[in-house]
Amino acid sequence: LLLLIGLPVALVISITRSQHPHTGEAGNTILSDFPDSTDGLFKGGPSINIWNELKKSLSEYNSTLTGPIIDNEYMETCEIFDNNPYMTAAESTCLQFNECRFKFCLPDLNAGSNLPTFVANVRSEKAIEVAILFASENNVTISIKTTGWSFKGSSTAYGSLMVLMNTFPKDGTILNKYKNSCGSSFPAAVAVGGGEWVDDVLEEVGDQYFTAFVPFTRALGVAGGFLQGGGVSLTSRTYGLAIDQVIDFRVTLANGKTVLADQCSNHELFWALKGGGGGTFGVVTKVHYKLEPKTSFISLHFSFFGGDVAHAQGDGEDYTKAIKEWLRFWIEKSPHLDHRWSGVFSSTYCYLFFFGPRDDATFIDEFNDWFNNDLNQLYLSSSKWGASLPKIEYHSSWYQYRGGSSAFRNPYSILESYIPNLWSVSSRLMEYDEVVNAPEDTLRFLMELSFTGTTWNSPNFLLGGKVSEVSVNDSSIHPMMRRSLWAIYIFESEGQKVLKKHFKSKENACLFNFHSVAEQNRQAF
Ligand SMILES: Cc1cc2nc3c(=O)[nH]c(=O)nc-3n(C[C@H](O)[C@H](O)[C@H](O)COP(=O)(O)OP(=O)(O)OC[C@H]3O[C@@H](n4cnc5c(N)ncnc54)[C@H](O)[C@@H]3O)c2cc1C
């Protein structure tokens, strides 16, 4: 199955590389192809000669400059990427998947462009410094891109010089007794290059340690917007946000200097990078993350099935009651779960993980009791719809659970979160107190969300636990993140209206990369 999926994708990449000059570094148009008279193409920016100087300087650091990207040509060639997210995420050809596919690549929408003029494919810190100094001397906007997964397209900007981190060297060195600049020692750490993906770091660390900071989506950058926006993962409740697991950053600043930021060096910058949003303070070139000892864990998975069938065969009322029963149970139990529980839930499922011995995982017994006595007995009488038996599994390795070596750069794994529609993500934080003090209101809200528009089944993260133990002053993440119980997501417009109705304050929208100044549109969500 994997081969079948992988093969056509690889084929498309090789064909488009040779056919389309503006679609990637390989075979891209070189600057010398353009005579001086093309200056008008550069959107009022520096002349071709000046760009050529940058190209030359970058080449001294093994780095290249591609472009200029000319909107019209780009639009003509862009349709080929329709429906091809591997190209957009992995090859950085389409500059921002959402915007490119649905707005800026289709000339008839005439929506303007967010494409940069040139792309610096940087391969060293020195090259980044050169690019930044060039931009500041010539009054050119810098955009920084690792994967282009930013929901709002903050990794690209019209007329900018894009610093593309995809080409930046990977690191992956594992260090024992790593010391920060205060001299504090950490038992184990991994050095991650500024352009690495989750996929890279999972493979680099392998089975030696436990990477408690990585999110579910393997194609996300692990040092860029994900991290600097806070970094929520399947294990956050137990181990904290990704920013809570960072020891230090190396960052190239707007003045072209690269500095270390940690507890004792550039402490305010360290604080700012932990939640201030990707691309806000500089280009992150390296991160040292803490590594946890390899650990076994237990997973608990449960899901409803056949909602449509239930409605079609006249059992809609019972199905609705069953969902309500689940949400009522979850609202009652989730605020008080042991901190060793982490995971995600929705109206129709939960994927939970327990990092500790079975004897301590008493929630499994409560869950089974509830399932057998309250849910199953009361509502689940049909074989065509209902809920699967809770599945309890024991795992010895997080790396293997995440797919092991066969998941690395596997198109199927990388695309695991591909959503084949215009992404219109809304997210809200649900505060602990709100759930505990007003369980009936919470239930009404979740029920409305569950039965408005399409089924509300996006993964909603369980927060609290370790996330709430970290002081709000330790990072620049919005304080609400530290006092929330859940992060709620919705991907379609009807559900978004329910979110807006329930959450009157705009503060609750402070999720994902929405902390960044470039993401200020969050309030419109
Ligand atoms: C399918 C999908 C699943 C997601 N799942 C999760 C999840 O589980 N948990 C979670 O917390 N978030 C998740 N997100 C949100 C994600 O964290 C943000 O979209 C984030 O901005 C992506 O960061 P990136 O570096 O990969 O993307 P990019 O689009 O490349 O960059 C995002 C921002 O960071 C900046 N940036 C990138 N690299 C650097 C760098 N090296 N130095 C400085 N700035 C940089 C860019 O300029 C831009 O502003 C998900 C997003 C998608 C699309």
TrEMBL record:
Cleavable signal peptide: 1-18
Record Pfam families: FAD_binding_4
Gene3D superfamilies named in the record: 3.30.465.10
Domain FAD-binding PCMH-type residues, every copy: 111-294
Molecular functions (GO terms): FAD binding; oxidoreductase activity
Claim: Signal is one of the keywords in the record: yes
SUPFAM superfamilies referenced in this protein's UniProt entry, alphabetically: FAD-binding/transporter-associated domain-like (SSF56176)
Alphabetical list of InterPro entries matching this protein: FAD-bd_PCMH, FAD-bd_PCMH-like_sf, FAD-bd_PCMH_sub2, FAD-linked_Oxidoreductases_BP, Oxid_FAD_bind_N
UniProt KW keywords: Oxidoreductase, Signal
PANTHER family reported for this sequence: FAD BINDING DOMAIN PROTEIN (AFU_ORTHOLOGUE AFUA_6G12070)-RELATED, GULONOLACTONE OXIDASE
Recorded family membership: Belongs to the oxygen-dependent FAD-linked oxidoreductase family.
Protein name (database record): FAD-binding PCMH-type domain-containing protein
Species of the source: Eucampia antarctica
